[in-house]
Amino acid sequence: MTHAAAGDTGRVDIRFAVRADVESLMTFIDEHWSAGHVLATSRKLLDWQHGGTDGRDYDYVVAVRGDDVLGILGFILTSRYDSRLVDARALWLALWKVKHGAPGALGIQMLTFLEKRVPHVLIGSVGVRGDVTRLYRALGYQVGRMRRHYVLHPGPKTFSIVEAPADAPTIRDGLDAGAPTLTSRDADSLLALQPWLDDAWPPDMVPVKTARYFVERFRHSPFYRYVVYSVERDGRMQGIIVVRSCDVGDARMLRIVDGFLPPPALPGLGAALQSLAVSRDAEAVDLLATGLDDEALLQSGLLELNEGEENIVLPNYFEPLVRKNSDLTWAYKPRSGQAVVSFKADADQDRPNRVS
Fold it and tell me: So what's the pLDDT on residue 36?
């Protein structure tokens, strides 16, 4: 695809990145996105997150004029973690930047190039910067804020990550549902859950995830240690959660970064997570997600961190630690009849900011 504008000195080519582009791509990120950004310094992370699928060298779109990179658009396909998803995959947009002085509308042309050439059933982004939300809306995307729920450690504890008044509730009281059981799953026992997932996954819910997806994305991550738990009640499978520990010195907070939480999995889940916080000596457990069932969430025992909350502080950034509440904005373009249920780790929001 080419583009030319008045005053341009040459043709602009829009194409997928090849191996020869990597150094220029990383330099562009450092100079035009954020100096010292992890994707500008870690080839290992770039390869893990954006190594090519469908025969490409890299899952990045680049706009170039000669040797000059004018814009980049990274993307992540759910099918990179399980080829079974190729016909039902989500296309998550990642780092998207056009440098100052590039031809007008070049960024939108790059997005159009990507949408037309990579088949998908859902396209979207998690962690959208505020100045881009209006553009997404103009392009027909739905935009919103990811909801955040949590429980606090119930015992007498001096928090060093979380900030909360001494009398702050640690869990929602007055619920009848008993706590489900959380069972840690290794790769083999997780893969054995696929027949249950095939039956339990609602036909209209996207993005679709498989047991293989959870194994390859999380159990085999070279950067973070994730624990994948099955949520069970009376010996019956009801859901899956993926948990990561965020440690600061000797303190920690646990985060549910992905999972499968249909309505039957949610009642009483807060009590199970509070027990997990006690067993792992964590100050809190939080869940960032959108699209979960409202009534089942009320029965979960989880507290909700409301927009603008000041009395409770649950940091969102840990590398380095930023001790304040931060919203996570999403933008999705679902098809008619689709129900989007997404979590923090969709797109590129649960990648490291530092790689040693």
Answer: 97
pLDDT in tens, 126-185: 999 888 999 999 999 999 999 999 999 999 778 999 999 999 999 998 777 789 999 999
* Plot region of 7 (φ>0 → left; ψ -120 to 50 → alpha; else → beta): left
* C-beta of residue 175 within 8 angstroms of C-beta of residue 267: yes
Do 147 and 236 contact (CB within 8 A), yes or no? no
Whole domain around residue 156: which residue ranges? Answer: 147-329
Does residue 89 sit in the same domain as residue 163?
no
* Apex 196 CA angle, 191 and 200, nearest 5: 130
Q: Pull the structure tokens for residue 27.
A: 């330099």
Identify the helix (H) or strand (E) that includes residue 271: helix 269-279
Has this prediction a pTM greater than 0.85? yes
Number of domains in the chain: 2
Query: Are 322 and 200 found together in one domain?
Result: yes
Q: Is the dihedral of CA 167, 170, 172, 175 positive or negative?
A: negative
